[in-house]
C-alpha cells in the first residue's frame, strides 16, 4: 500500500496540464507530505476504490489541502445523478475545490484508446468526467443540498498508463478531445496472443492492485506459460508492462 501511495504522489497525469482544462497531479503540486505511518484499507477491493482511498490519504496528509466532503451521492426525485469524489479546501489558494479522481489503463487500437475489456474508451471517459462528473456541483440538486459550496473550482486527476502495440504499425495520437496527452505516460505495450512470442523475455502476471506499481521485487514470481481468457496484464523480466489480449479484441467485449 505504501508503494502505491508513493506512486500516486509521484506519477504525472495522463494529460498535460493546461490552463484551459482542470487537469492536475500531486506530482505537479509538489505537496509537503506528512507520510502516514500505516494505512489499513478495508473497503471495496476494486482498483478504483483503492485508488480513491489513496488520493484521500494524500490530500489528508498534505499541509495544503483539507478534505471537507467525500463520496457525496447526489439524487433528485429518486434518481441517482452521480457521486462527487471530494470537496476540498485549498489553504494555499484560499478556495474550495471539487475534485474527481480516476486511475485508468488504455490500449491504442486504430485511433482510439480502449480499456483492456474494451467497454471503456479514453475519449468517452474524459468526456463524461469533464461534462458530467465535474459539473455535478453546479446542478440545482447539489446547490440546494449544499448551499455553502458554490462556485467551486474543479480539479481532475487522471492517472494510469497508455499502451501501444510495438508489433503493429500505428500512429500514436498526441491529443484526445483536443487535450494533449502526456507522452511520459505512453509507456506500456500490448499485443495479441499470437504475437506473444515476439516479446522475447518472461512475463509475470500482475494482480489488480499491482497494475500501477508492478511486481514486488523482493518476491519470487512464476512466469506465465499459457494464455487463456480475454486479457492478461503482466510485467516482463526487464520491468516492462504488457497487456496480452485475445485475437478478437477489442470487438469481443462480453
Largest sheet: 9 strands, mixed
Helix fraction bin: 10-25%
Mean pLDDT: 92
H and E string = HHHEEEEHHEEEEEEE
- Beta-strand share of residues: 25-35%
Number of helices: 5
Assembly context of the chains: single chain
**Number of structural units classed as domains:** 1
What does the overall shape look like?
globular
Provide structural commentary.
This is DUF1853 family protein. It holds the Pfam family DUF1853. With 254 residues, the protein is α/β, with parallel strands linked by helices. α1 packs across α3 (47-60). It contains five helices and eleven strands, in the order αααββββααβββββββ. Helix content is 17%, strand content 31%. The model has no long low-confidence stretch (mean pLDDT 92). The relative contact order is 0.16. The strands form two sheets. Strands 1, 2, 3, 4, 5, 8, 9, 10 and 11 form a nine-stranded mixed β-sheet that branches. Strands 6-7 form a two-stranded antiparallel ribbon. It has one domain (2-245). The protein has helices at 2-10, 26-29, 47-60, 122-131, 140-145; strands at 65-76, 79-90, 95-109, 112-114, 153-164, 175-176, 179-180, 186-192, 203-205, 231-236, 241-245. The chain is globular and about 60 Å long.
